[in-house]
Amino acid sequence: MEVETPAQAQGTTHVAGTTRTLRNPLLVVNFVLMVVGSAGGPLFLRAYFLHGGARKWLSALLQTAGFPLLLVPLCVSFSRRRRRRPRRPDDGAPAMAPFFLMTPRLLAASAAIGLMTGLDDLLYAYGLAYLPVSTSSILISTQLAFTAAFALLLVRQRFTAFSVNAVALLSAGAAMLGMNAGGDRPAGVSPAQYGAGFAMTLGAAALYGLLLHAMELSQAQARAGTAAAVTYTLVIEMQLVIGLTATVFSAVGMLANHDLHAIPGEAREFDLGRSGYYLLLAGSAATYQCFFLGTIGAVFFGSALLAGVVMTVLIPVTEVLAVVFFHEPFNGTKGVALALSLWGFVSYFYGEVQTSKAHHLPDKPTNVERLDP
């Protein structure tokens, strides 16, 4: 795995690394987690709004509230580290193993990313409350364009003609949806609410493009600042802190908005019943945690731009599921916008592969990090 620092991030290294890391089985596992989260998360959250839910701060909190699930792999990793610690020479007892591997600097960086994630979750929740899942998903696909732009600004990544073509196609798809704004407005949503949802979803896409690179740079700084390896365990710890901080951010908003007092009444009046209400909330939290864990793992084993590309190619899965489960309209404009998004993905990935072949860089073994350092 290669996490590039700003000084090291050259296009040649990146494209070669993209090809190599695709063979990493742990990267494939993280892709599967992204598929589960990308397909299930928006559907759970949209179902919450369609069946009587109306709490935006609660829906933002659900996107990171599953972070306690990460304590399970962290406990397993701690147990393994404890068994493998060398014994003390005085009494022969095993030396103490730290439960957390994070440095204070990385902890602060992860907390800052968590605050940005909380804001991004709120923007996305507002957008999904007023937009169909299909429209929201296509708009979210523009995060690849934002991710590519931040790759140029933050890590000085070189662009090829294929990369520029991908960004242009994604931007054109979003512009088409903007010109058709309101054509698929759900019942009960005013034009002003639809426009606000459109703008907030684009804002969420832009902010998430920045977040991906913030994660990548924080991992690179952690590697540069310590002699120890940056392991997948450390990445899970980062996601735990990010999830905790984002959840606290949303919880404060819920308290200010009196959402906690409204939840029991909302559950009683929910179309799917009280049990269905709480199961829906739990399902949202679990699937979104899969998505965030898979994303940060994709950044760790690949790059921020690779994670953005994978998120883009998963759009058709969400599109099809939204049409099947929610019977959302899928007009010609959406079809063209989706085709442009997929064309942009194919253009980007084809360009990466061709550039890698052109440089004929020798293949080197991928550093497959285990769960325990």
TrEMBL record:
Its main location: membrane. The chain crosses the membrane at residues 26-45, 57-78, 99-117, 129-155, 162-182, 194-215, 227-256, 276-300, 305-326, 332-351. GO terms for molecular function: purine nucleobase transmembrane transporter activity; purine nucleoside transmembrane transporter activity. It is found in: Membrane. One of its GO terms (cellular component) is membrane. Pfam families: PUNUT. It is a multi-pass membrane protein. Keywords: Membrane, Transmembrane, Transmembrane helix, Transport. Belongs to the purine permeases (TC 2.A.7.14) family. This is Probable purine permease. It comes from Zea mays.
